[in-house]
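ESCALATION

Customer reports they have been waiting on this structure for their group meeting. Please prioritize. Original submission:
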Amino acid sequence: MRVALLSDIHANRHALEGVLEEVDALAIDEMWCLGDIVGYGAEPDGCCALVRENAAVCLAGNHDLAVTGHLPTDEFARGAAIAADWTAKAMATDHLEWLGTLSASGRRQGIGLFHGSPREPVWEYVMDPLTAALSMDVQGGAIAAVGHSHIALSYHREPEGDATGTRRQAGDTVTLNIGEWILNPGSVGQPRDGDNRAAWLELDLETGQATWRRTAYDIAGAQFAIRAARLPDSLADRLEYGQ
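Update from on-call: job pushed to the front of the queue and completed.
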């Protein structure tokens, strides 16, 4: 079975539609979403509808939890807090209720799924070898997938070895049959690694291979939607630069 791992869509319908078109063209069997369907962007209802229709499993991210009132926005940056407040008021009730049923962690096909990290699924970023090693100690299996950082990367620890990490570019492929792994597909709707294309990960469970993908999309359309909603201009501007 081949899986499309998506994370951090952030109400960017244009990016999500572009990725789903490519997922369909590649005849991938399932889609898993690691959370943050909403926040920052201007089309939360459209993104929720698409995720609900296409995802076999979906987690809640910190922005989803903030929008549903399960998490305060005290630790959010100003633009993120403004967007969360706007989203909570703008969204349809049924999508808000659905977001409220999601958890920040899960498991499917033996793979641990976490929005943040296996140690702290809501807030912790896996961005250094020590955090990766501590997360591997508790992830409950050889492979875990995380989101939250908006950066495509992987961490690997061989038996009796230390954890090492690598940022991942489009087309990078690794084989997962030795040691422990933490995989981050990057962000669909707001990449922060300098590549403005939507990021996602193809996972082949039969061959044990993971391939990082990037999908071009209508950035100008997503920016127009943010500005039309009168959300902070910075949330639109950053899409162009992948930051």
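Sent to customer with the following note: The chain has eight helices and twelve strands.
Escalation resolved.
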